[in-house]
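Try this one yourself first.
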């Protein structure tokens, strides 16, 4: 029997928090027994979902921001109810979810709320932009466009067009390549030399994208150096102010400063009284549920599953879109009283964009780079988008950026 607080304002057999990669892929495969508004409830604070893998292209004007937005409502058409609210806490013992619209009782709970940007240290936080959402991308685009306009007006400012990126993970690498290409593009359209147009990528360890095969680091280094990106390995950033950043090697003037130092689990997961890793992700077992609470699934970026072959799985879309359908299948078995399914991860590989027309990856066991990798990268992202409209708009944006220039800069 479901244990619920008497003050629960809503009840559902299954409550899904988050309409991202994991939550949406679960709802798409929802078993017949749960495909009714009274049985399943989706909770999300937004009306639209953002396709985060493309925000680095929004930041440099290659993709329109609306292209990355998709309405959430169609996910629940004829299959579940929806509640537009922020989830604020979970009472695991009472089996209730607290939201800004009231308390929701559940029999099964799926936490798939994604992640948030890991913030800079407190003493530097006010001097960096983070980069993990569409709003972050638009803020960065505005900063870059403002610096470009000042340069065109002949208003010199030390480091005005220098972009400092702190964190050499996949986000930092992809953004560094895109901004370097943008600065080249703007330089060709300037009547005066852009002497301080630089991209400096700082990484505290000895290689980029350390959780991936060293091949990714090697190819990325080659490409970034060819684009003119200054990659500073073994260089932690220790200080920052509105004029730039400080490292053990000295001060670097930088008008734009972006913290790309990884991600953390969303606050809802971090607040759970369960065992978590250093990034705040909840440790889950072989069914992707919390130890001691088999009714609570944690999918996508919020959970960390230790695979016997690959170790802890990373917080990527590739993992999330496998976990969603699997959890739907397991829930269907539980509802029917049938044997359950152990989670079985399939390594599809990984792709990293290195600017327009270039990428590096590993797919089906093969290492790929250059134009072929970029074509694969684009095809995978088009596949992950939610509908025909989104794919069409993305394709049009890619074509138009070559034909008419950069949105927000031309």
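Now uncover the answer:
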């Amino acid at each position: 029997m479901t244990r619920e607080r008497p003050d629960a304002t809503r009840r559902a057999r299954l409550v899904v928090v988050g309409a991202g990669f994991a939550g949406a892929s679960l709802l798409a495969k929802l078993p017949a027994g749960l495909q009714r508004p009274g049985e399943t409830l989706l909770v999300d604070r937004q009306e639209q979902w953002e396709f985060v893998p493309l925000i680095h292209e929004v930041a440099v004007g290659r993709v329109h921001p609306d292209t990355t937005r998709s309405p959430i409502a169609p996910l629940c058409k004829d299959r579940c109810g929806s509640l537009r609210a922020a989830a604020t806490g979970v009472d695991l013992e009472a089996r209730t979810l607290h939201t800004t619209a009231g308390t929701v009782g559940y029999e099964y709970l799926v936490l798939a709320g994604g992640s948030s940007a890991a913030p800079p240290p407190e003493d530097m936080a006010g001097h960096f932009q983070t980069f993990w959402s569409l709003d972050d991308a638009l803020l960065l685009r505005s900063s870059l466009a403002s610096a470009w306009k000042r340069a065109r007006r002949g208003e010199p400012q030390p480091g005005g067009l220098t972009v400092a990126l702190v964190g050499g993970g996949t986000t930092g690498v992809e953004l560094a390549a895109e901004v370097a290409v943008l600065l080249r593009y703007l330089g060709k359209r300037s009547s005066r030399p852009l002497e301080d147009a630089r991209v400096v990528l700082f990484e505290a360890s000895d290689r980029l994208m350390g959780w991936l095969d060293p091949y990714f680091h090697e190819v990325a280094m080659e490409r970034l150096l060819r684009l003119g990106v200054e990659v500073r390995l073994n260089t932690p950033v220790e200080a920052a102010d509105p004029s730039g950043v400080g490292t053990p090697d000295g001060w670097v003037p930088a008008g734009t400063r972006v913290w790309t130092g990884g991600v953390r689990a969303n606050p809802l997961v971090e607040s759970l009284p369960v065992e978590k890793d250093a990034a705040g992700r909840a440790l889950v077992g072989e069914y992707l549920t919390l130890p001691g609470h088999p009714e609570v699934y944690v999918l996508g970026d919020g959970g960390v599953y230790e695979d016997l072959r690959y170790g802890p799985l990373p917080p990527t879309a590739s993992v999330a879109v496998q976990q969603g359908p699997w959890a739907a299948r397991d829930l269907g078995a539980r509802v029917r009283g049938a044997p359950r399914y152990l989670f079985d991860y399939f390594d599809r590989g990984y792709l990293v964009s290195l600017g327009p027309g270039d990428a590096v990856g590993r797919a089906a066991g093969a290492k790929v780079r250059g134009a072929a990798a970029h074509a694969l990268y684009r095809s995978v992202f088009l596949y992950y988008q939610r509908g025909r409209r989104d794919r069409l708009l993305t394709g049009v944006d890619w074509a138009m950026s070559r034909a008419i220039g950069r949105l927000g800069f031309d």
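Discussion: The chain has two domains: 10-45+85-117+263-347, 125-261+351-404. Confidence is low (pLDDT under 50) at residues 1-6.
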